[in-house]
Design a protein that fits this description.
By secondary structure, the protein is mainly β. It is 12% helix and 58% strand. The chain is built from 2 helices and 9 strands, in the order H-E-E-E-E-H-E-E-E-E-E. It has an 8-stranded antiparallel beta barrel.
Length: 178
């Protein structure tokens, strides 16, 4: 666990120190996610970094030897994001409004093992994952939002098991407040 904290601190420090002065991120954004229902709040920290908090739901589907099942689970996710191409996008005349850019992030998430909806129950009471992701976020004039992120990290649960876990985030939603 000490190594995860050290890695997290190093990752965050690296991106904060390397942040260049350029068109900055928004001070705050509040959006609602439609595909996986939930609320998301993004807080600007520096010109290129934000903290993104999401409380909502996650979806799982499993088909195997013992049958199939699905579940919708409560989830909490936080990401420390470094937007690395805001200036480049702005120089090319592309939209950078509402942090419409690509990012690298340290992502952490925790979800329960018991579904709100569905029949896919896990033995564990909770799951978590922490690791780096690459992502892109786009807001359109209508307020519609697309956010995709991919990565991998260290998964853990209440049985003290640690394992590699892919991180995949797909969010569709709309801006509520700026």
């Amino acid at each position: 666990m000490k190594y995860i904290l050290l890695l997290s601190f190093s990752f965050c420090t690296l991106f904060t120190l390397n942040a260049q002065q350029q068109n900055g991120v928004e001070k705050s954004l509040l959006s609602v996610n439609i595909l996986t229902p939930g609320l998301e709040y993004e807080l600007g920290l520096t010109n290129t970094t934000t903290l993104d908090f999401r409380i909502g739901t996650g979806f799982a589907y499993r088909k195997g030897f013992f049958g199939e099942g699905y579940g919708v689970y409560p989830i909490f996710n936080v990401q420390y994001r470094y937007y690395y191409n805001l200036k480049k996008r702005n120089d090319k005349g592309k939209n950078t409004t509402n942090n419409s850019a690509n990012y690298l992030a340290l992502s952490g998430a925790v979800q329960t093992g018991k579904p709100i909806i569905g029949n896919l129950e896990y033995y564990e009471d909770y799951f978590g994952v922490i690791g780096p992701v690459w992502g892109l976020q786009r807001y359109y004039k209508s307020g519609f939002k697309l956010d995709l992120n991919l990565g991998g990290g260290l998964g853990f649960d209440d049985y003290d098991k640690a394992y590699f876990s892919p991180i995949i985030g797909i969010r569709l939603g709309c801006l509520l407040f700026k």
